Amino acid sequence: MENSTMDSVIPECSCAENLLNKNQSLPIETIFKLPAETPLWPSGVGNFASGTIDLGGLQVSQISTFNKIWAAQEGGPDNVGATVFEPIGIPLGFFMLGSYIQPNNRPLFGWVLVAKDVSFSIINRTLKQPLDYKLVWSSALEKIKQDSTAYVWLPTAPNGYKAVGHVVTTTPNKPSLNKIRCVREDLTDQCETYSWMWGPGKDSKLSSFNIFDARPSNRGTLAPGVRVGTFVAQIGLSSTSIVSISCLKNMNVNSTMPNLQQIQALLTAYSPIMYLHPDDEYLTSSVNWYFSNGVLLYEKGEESQPVPIAPNGTNLPQGGTNDGAYWMDLPADPANKERVKRGDLLSSKSYIHVKPMLGGTFTDIAIWVFYPFNGNARAKLGNLTIPLGLIGEHVGDWEHVTLRVSNFNGLLWQMYFSQHNKGAWYEASQLEFQSGNKPIVYSSFHGHATYPHAGLNPQGTDVIGLRNDTAKSDKVVDFGSFELVSAEYLGSQVIEPPWLNYFRQWGPTIDYNIDDELRKVEKILPESVRILLETIIKALPSEVLGQEGPTGPKTKDNWIGDEN
């Protein structure tokens, strides 16, 4: 990725370990760059990494070089301000669709789409100038540290067209009508607010004006909504005060997806490296190692006659729903059971699901890993660590991370980390890397939630909650040893293994009373602490608590939907 052209010399930052501590401002002129150069991707019949995508008479390109327009040095995430940019280096014939904003708590690493009318229509053009501009907000009366006064403008779109972004200026004069373009309505989709970018206050609830990232409301493998990279300006606190802008739409979501050779190249470049906690005795294994070491399939009503599971799960029931009719369990022999619970690191591999996202402008590479057993949870109570009995224990544990790669250029932009009943997206600039552009993943002790950095990762408060300890160790899983198990858009080129279409539980339902387990712990705790701990733990789904065996990757909402 080339460096942006700025008003001053731009220092580079290529490692998340160089990022700032909380409440420490980073000069937004610092631009993040991946540690290693991205390779030349293999060619193919499709348009992956070709630089542009045709949305149907509307050609778009992803721009990540910017000119700084305005900055505040306070407010927003971590109260360190935000900076507004305009795209520069726009290709001939393309037009700006809106300004870009980024909080100052991380290096500059973003993009915004620009567009070109390739419809060859004089009457029904895909792009038109706005008719006028409406002033949405000005920082003139805000008592904040800022470079100058900002004016946020919403384009007034012609009939049959939609604005997909705002323009920000530093003078009260309206921008030129030629500054931006509106998009024909049939090429747009509904937007929603996502992450908080900036507001004058320390929290979005404390600000009368807020700026949020904008993304399509409907997201998934078949959803046409395209993220533009622009923002939504919101006046007041009511949802009805959100300024109406739209996202784009692509009805041919598969046209720019990578082929098999390109998938291989992407994983060679970006496959993560995962560190298990040094004290965790419950390690990963391959699915076939698990099956070949005595794991049994049980059927309701025939519990006394379990059957061994064949390699690759060829004798597992296919399809259906998780109706309780079947479940897996560890070997019956006690010694073998304990051995299998501990996994087999040498056999470990990752299981890859490749899918289109955000209208086919991005490729999501979901990387799944299997653990035969999940250990019990631990609570943090001040400086004390308290094991929580059977809470958290279960047989069969599926975890995953997801790489989000641009279909314009093959660049890694984001990574999702699954964390119990939730998870989080992180920008590439927030990750740690090793061996080039391979992100580091940390697996939490016993719970196996995934995190981008080592540490405690408390679930609850810093004083009371569940511990999710992560640390580097010599227990390492290289996700570069993988099996591509699904890429639906490639049809018969990828054969799904039978175990992937087993939709029942990968472990038995454990019969224990969560209240009894909590009472064993709570005898030593004051009432206020007991109530808070109970609230945190009981908010977790039964699959995480260990009361029922988890189901496989294909049963999860994110298989065809977005991560969150």
TrEMBL record:
Spans annotated as Disordered: 544-564
Pfam family name, one: Vps62
Biased composition (Basic and acidic residues): 554-564
Coiled-coil regions, chain positions: none
Matches recorded under InterPro entries: Vps62
Record protein name field: Putative vacuolar protein sorting-associated protein
Protein species of origin: Lupinus albus (White lupine)
